Amino acid sequence: MAWTIALTIIFIVISLGLTVVILLQEGKQAGLGGTISGAAETYWGKNKGRSMEGKLEKATKIMVVLFFVLSIVLNMDFIKW
Any idea of the CA torsion for 62, 67, 70, 75, to the nearest 10 degrees? Predict the structure, then answer.
């Protein structure tokens, strides 16, 4: 019972964090600015993992995996200690 409550609290925190991380990301549409600054795009594309956007994408991937794993674990009902 205590494990279920703890996992549920962690699940809620991950859900809120995932929402915030997704909302902080920039859109993928380049628009007019993307066609004008093509040279800058290649430089930032190479260093994307070090930029804030790259870190947000990594955090999103990790949180999505945790979200799905916890949702499956919480629905299996095998943790009834």
Answer: -150
Among positive and negative, which fits the CA dihedral 68, 69, 73, 76? positive
Residue the block writes with tokens 């009834």:
80
Taking only the tens place, the pLDDT of each residue in 19-78 is: 999 999 877 665 555 555 554 555 555 565 678 888 899 999 999 999 999 999 988 866
Q: Report the distance separating Cα 77 and Cα 11, nearest Å.
A: 15
- The residues near 46 (Cβ < 8 Å, ≥ 6 apart) are none
Rounded CA-CA distance 44/40 in Å is: 6
- Determine the residue type at 3: W
For helices 52-76 and 2-24, what crossing angle results, to 10°?
150
Q: How far is CA 53 from the centre of its chain?
A: 11
Q: What is the Cα–Cα distance from 59 to 49, expressed in whole angstroms?
A: 11
